[in-house]
Write a structure and sequence with these properties.
Chain lengths: ~625, ~280
């Protein structure tokens, strides 16, 4: 039934050479795995940085001789200096948000499973897909390079370093936080260490990342709209597909704004424009006469217009995976499928009108702040609807506690714990004491960081058998879950109370202020919890690598799930369905159907009572001509 | 497995709630006029947050306890695709609660931000620079002398670029410590020399960015004399963590006497006052 012209466009033969098969591959499955590997590498860097930060906060002034050896400029004599700490803050945030939370959920799992779940042979534009990964990869190399050019005097004074604006010597990376507020980030080395060549590369890296994400987003949207197989109507798609689709739309609309902002910031730094730099700035008694008339707040608007949707870019795929996995192991249809789809849309739409809640005290109009506040708390409504529906899905279930299910339940718990404090931070008045205190990192780490990561852990344990034909070890998986679940609560719940006491973010030490003295035991507690939780992740890495080679063999549908990825081999062949595209007859989560022989009914199972094909609609390959 | 997970979720919930309820780590005692209303709004919000958090976690724990697959029965899960009535009910309820909170949360904000400082306010110009606070007092005439970035000279301690030739500047004084009168509305005129800083005194329940290129006017009233720590709360570079100063809240007479002093005696007097007033006693 599928049209010849169509296949001619999308089908590409399985490559023979190693390079075309594994490196510059056009296969969405290989590209998905490449994204996941990139995230797995980036998260090691990001987590290591957070452990270094915790060491410095808990035991300031301690000599860590190994640090002194590894980072002679950042930790002379083994004692971390404030510049090193702040560059860790900056790089941890940037690497985690961009190269972990944006790559794995969307580029990784989305790439691998969106085409299979809608019954397509590949993405709409395989070459574009390959490009989006490799562009992103270049962005990662550039962000790593930013660490080395900034503090390395050899590179900074070389032709490359000079061309990049020169390093500023005493630091090990750019300083600006992941938000890179101007004019600190805009005026160059005059503003101190961490503002030289490294900052240029930080901006370049993010700009490259934006381009990669844009290419990916175009591909996701086109694929989902045009390449669904026969019978795969929109409302028969798994919730994962809705989540990836909405995420792609958010990315398509928000990344260009950051790209534009980044280019303007780079122009301010390198060619003397003044988009973000006002006149009359004074650094060390000398007036910066080269700039005039710019607006620092403009950068914040551009950044957060991207930055807030980015939060949903990170977590929506986790929500999709959680819905998918909860339903599968609850052995029960998802509760309120239609409400879940609307909630995803509502979150995506409202996500574009709340960016100002990051800027209540920035000097923006107080009336704008009030509008943003109302809209911000409104976004809690679809979020709560999702939570209620997850609980509804568990109600009356027959829960199978596999490792992916544990992580999915953990996602629900953490999403509630992290999201609910948005009710505090979203209020204009309450932002006066809470802004830029530890209450804020506590909130967003739980909801955007940890909950999203739990969604990804659930996804990897769930789909690993499909991707590699083997299970991950359940015993190790459960050990990983218990310690991580308890660990992340121990890290981030106490941070809320630190924020109430008034502990400011982005301080390299808390030794200067007496009002922070009482909090010290909690600081140490959090650090110990963070170090243990970070170490536990080694078990996950071991399990991952070991299982690729030695894991228990898995069949086509080891979890007794219903969606299309479970109708094909594990791992799927190059064209996903070995030349025969599946036809879909029903919704994605038909578990516990009364009268059915099994407690699950696959999407491809024809309906006995309606043998005709009039039920088979959709705008899939049928009726779609290039 | 289901029961273990349920119990762990409940224990985490209980400990998290206890951490807040215990009150050992809480806001420092407030000293500003708007703070009681703000603290009340925080309390209402955190109670709503606490109840929602507890209800959701207890419910989640209960589901995984009750609906675990025991394997002993061949029964299937309940076949249900949801309930539109329930969707409507919980959407409406959460919308009412959340929007109400947002509206209530505007009260203190509106009282502080939607109108200018009341007549009779005491004005202080704040000029932040990397890792130092500078406060510019108008002196007896109540008029600030002219300032110009080109006149800034750190080596001559002219951190704000005060124009000494301006007659209005004759009685002006500057210091790195802010001294304000108790019980009188204070207007801060916030500026920055270089990058964004943030004026943050935890006891005031008050925070505002100082943005280069802008004059941001904000106001509050402090009603308890004492010495309080002033911190920068916006990342401003290398030594952000020690961009510290003090805020002295003085009885009206003591403040008036201080402001009548010429620059050199003013410096000495501030030093005396810093020694005279103790920091609040913080819970250990």
């Amino acid at each position: 039934m599928s049209s010849e012209t169509h296949e001619a466009v999308h089908r590409h033969e399985a490559p023979k050479s190693f390079i075309r098969k594994y490196i510059f591959s056009l296969d969405h499955k290989v590209i998905g795995i490449q994204y996941i590997i990139l995230a797995l590498a980036a998260v090691v860097v990001g987590v290591t940085m957070s452990v270094l930060m915790r060491l410095n906060l808990s035991w300031p002034g301690t000599k860590w001789s190994i640090l002194g050896t590894l980072f002679p400029t950042g930790a002379p004599g083994g004692i971390m200096n404030p510049d090193f700490y702040l560059s860790l803050v900056t790089m941890h945030g940037t690497i985690m948000v961009f190269f972990v939370l944006t790559t794995a959920p969307q580029g990784g799992f989305g790439n691998y499973f969106l085409p299979i779940q809608i019954g397509a042979e590949d993405m709409a534009f395989p070459f574009l897909n390959m490009m989006s990964f490799w562009v992103t990869f270049v962005g990662f190399i550039v962000i790593l390079a930013a660490i080395f050019v900034e503090g390395n005097t050899t590179i900074a004074t070389s032709a490359l370093g000079v061309w990049l604006g020169g390093g500023s010597g005493s630091t090990v990376g750019p300083i600006g936080g992941w938000t890179g507020y101007a004019p600190l980030s805009a005026v160059g080395v005059a503003a101190g260490p961490g503002q030289g060549a490294g900052m240029n590369l930080w901006i370049v890296s993010i700009a490259i990342f934006c381009i990669g994400s844009l290419l990916g987003a175009l591909n996701f949207i086109t694929t989902l709209l045009n390449m669904r197989t026969r019978g795969m109507t929109l409302m028969r798609m798994p919730l994962t597909c809705w989540a990836w689709f909405t995420t792609a739309v958010l990315a398509l609309l928000s990344f260009p704004v950051l790209l534009g902002g980044g280019i303007l910031l780079l122009l301010d730094r390198t060619v003397g424009t003044s988009f973000f730099i006002p006149g009359g700035l004074v650094f060390g008694s000398s007036v910066l006469n080269t700039h005039t008339g710019g607006s620092p707040i403009l950068w914040q608007h551009l950044f957060w217009f991207f930055g807030h949707p980015e939060v949903y870019i990170a977590i929506l795929p986790g929500m999709g995976a959680t819905s998918h996995i909860l339903s599968t192991f609850a052995r029960k249809p998802i509760f309120g499928y239609r409400a879940m789809v609307f909630a995803i849309f509502a979150i995506g739409l409202l996500g574009f009108f709340v960016w100002g809640h990051h800027m209540f005290i920035s000097g923006m109009s107080p009336y704008s702040a009030m509008t943003f506040s109302i809209l911000t708390l409104s976004i809690g409504v679809p979020s709560a609807v999702k939570t209620f529906n997850w609980l509804g899905t568990l109600w009356g279930a027959r829960i199978r506690f596999t490792t992916p299910m544990l992580f999915a339940i953990g996602f629900v718990s953490l999403f509630v714990a992290g999201g609910i404090t948005g009710l505090v931070l979203g209020q204009t008045s309450l932002d006066l004491p809470m802004h830029d205190t530890y209450f804020v990192p506590a909130h967003f780490h739980l909801v955007m960081g940890v909950a999203s990561i739990f969604g990804m852990f659930a996804a990897i344990y769930f789909w690993f058998p499909k991707m590699f034909g083997r299970f991950m070890n359940e015993r190790l998986g459960k050990f990983h879950f218990w310690l991580t679940f308890i660990g992340v609560y121990c890290i981030f719940v106490p941070m809320h109370t630190m924020g109430m006491v008034g502990m400011p973010r982005r301080y390299s030490q808390f030794t200067e202020y007496r009002f922070l003295d009482s909090i010290h035991p909690l600081v140490i507690f959090v650090s110990i919890a963070a170090i243990i939780t970070a170490l536990v992740q080694l078990v996950f890495y071991f399990n991952l690598i070991w299982s690729v080679f030695k894991g228990k063999k898995a069949g086509e549908n080891p979890w007794e799930a219903t969606t299309l990825e479970w109708t094909t081999a594990s791992p799927p062949p190059h064209d996903n369905f070995a030349g025969v595209l599946p036809v879909v007859y029903r919704g994605p989560y038909e578990f516990a159907v009364p009268g059915a022989p099994n407690d699950y009914v696959m999407q491809t199972e024809p309906d006995a009572s309606k043998a005709g094909s009039e039920e088979v609609g959709g705008n899939g390959h049928n009726g779609h001509k290039h | 497995m289901g029961r273990v997970l349920a119990v762990i979720i409940w224990i985490i919930t209980l400990l998290s709630v206890l951490l807040f309820v215990a009150g050992k780590w809480w806001f420092p005692e407030a000293i500003s006029e708007h703070a009681p209303a703000l603290d009340r709004q925080f309390l209402i919000t955190i109670v709503v947050v606490g109840i929602s958090f507890t209800a959701a976690q207890v419910g989640l724990g209960w589901m995984v306890w009750k609906y675990r697959d025991t394997g002993s029965s061949s029964d299937r899960a309940t076949y249900s695709h949801g309930s539109n009535r329930l969707e409507v009910v919980w959407t409406v309820i959460t919308a009412i609660v959340f929007i109400s909170l947002a509206v209530m949360g505007q009260g203190v904000w509106a009282s502080l931000r939607l109108h200018d400082a009341p007549a009779g306010s005491y004005s202080v110009e704040v000029v932040a620079q990397q890792f130092q606070w500078n406060f510019h007092y108008a002196g007896k005439d109540g008029i600030f002398g002219r300032t110009d970035p080109n006149l800034i000279d750190d080596s001559a301690t002219n951190y704000i670029g005060l124009d000494e030739t301006d007659p209005n500047a004759k009685d002006d004084v500057t210091h790195t410590v802010i001294a304000i009168p108790e019980g009188r509305p204070i207007e801060l005129i916030l500026r920055s020399r270089d990058v964004i800083h943030n004026f943050w005194v935890p006891q005031l329940r008050f925070k505002q960015d100082l943005v280069p290129g802008m004059n941001i006017r904000v106001h509050f009233t402090a009603n308890r004399p004492g010495k309080y720590e002033l911190a920068c709360a916006e990342l401003c570079g290398q030594f952000h963590y020690r961009m510290k100063s003090f805020m002295l809240v003085l009885p009206a007479a003591e403040h008036e006497a201080l402001m009548a002093l010429p620059q050199d005696q003013f410096q000495t007097r501030i030093t005396e006052l810093l020694a005279k007033y103790e920091l609040p006693v913080y819970q250990q």
